[in-house]
Amino acid sequence: MSSSVTSRPTALYGGQAGRRVTVRDVAAAKERGERWPMVTAYDAMTAKVFDEAGIPVLLVGDSAAMVVYGYDSTLPVTVDDLLPLTAAVVRGSSRAMVVADLPFGSYQASPQQALETAARFMKEGGAHAVKLEGGRRVLPQVEALVSAGIPVMAHLGLTPQSVNTFGGYRVQGRGQAGDELMSDAKDLEYAGAFAVVLECVPAELAERVTRSLSIPTIGIGAGPSTDAQVLVWQDLMGLTPHPAKFVKKYFDLAGEMDRAVRAFADEVVGGAFPAAEHSYH
């Protein structure tokens, strides 16, 4: 598709390359009733694989705190930790929209702080959009970013940056809390968010929210009725030893890596590697 043609409908997942996916493409997919996948990425090489596979949106998640930096929650990761990862994912991809998570403590204080942080991700990281967590308490931040021309993906339900407030990783949105989540989702749409992640909420609630919004919903542990689904790539590839209930393991990458590195080690110890074909003459 020519970069000068932006209005022609195209499949979001696996669509024709030639330009980046935009928020308009995501909105059009919602109108067509088209579901699509989003996965996390933290480096150029995996971003290239996912991009060439047709994944339309790559999230540089603050989950990097755990899967890249080895922390036990998302809270310790910083803007300076995530910026180089974001830039790497942008360089490694050519079609996918790259969304950068705003880490804990980098946007909650004020709309001005949110704008300064998001601007760094757009200018230094090359991100095409940012994601932040929370409902009505972050509406001023969302409005400020959208007014400045920065696309915002919202995040409701189990928001990992608030895990200490929730008392752990628990399902959110049951009972009256479901009505509050619905209200937050509508407020975020009105504030200008182009999509909203729903994490660890009852499937029935996620379905109601999806029907009530004109912007896409992206589920993670939110049942099958959201417009899109997202997983951390290490979870879906089988690298995570104890994944959450909502994770489906599509490949045993941990097992394959173990077999490969053991084979390499055995050949080194036994003298079979490097062989003549791996040596210069």
CATH architecture call of the largest domain: Alpha-Beta Barrel
Low-confidence stretches: 1-8
Q: How many E strands? A: 8
Could you give the distance between the termini? 47 Å
Number of helices: 11
Overall mean pLDDT score? 93
The CATH superfamily of the largest domain turns out to be: Phosphoenolpyruvate-binding domains
> In percent, how much strand structure appears in the residues?
5-15%
- The level of helicity is 25-40%
Radius of gyration: 20 Å
Largest sheet: 8 strands, parallel, barrel
Name of the top-level CATH class of the largest domain: Alpha Beta
Write down the overall geometry. globular
What is the count of structural domains? 2
Output the CATH topology of the largest domain.
TIM Barrel
Assign the structural class, choosing from mainly alpha, mainly beta, alpha/beta, alpha+beta, or little secondary structure. alpha/beta
Strand order, biggest sheet? 1-2-3-4-5-6-7-8
Family: Belongs to the PanB family.
Protein name: 3-methyl-2-oxobutanoate hydroxymethyltransferase
Catalytic activity: (6R)-5,10-methylene-5,6,7,8-tetrahydrofolate + 3-methyl-2-oxobutanoate + H2O = 2-dehydropantoate + (6S)-5,6,7,8-tetrahydrofolate
EC number: 2.1.2.11
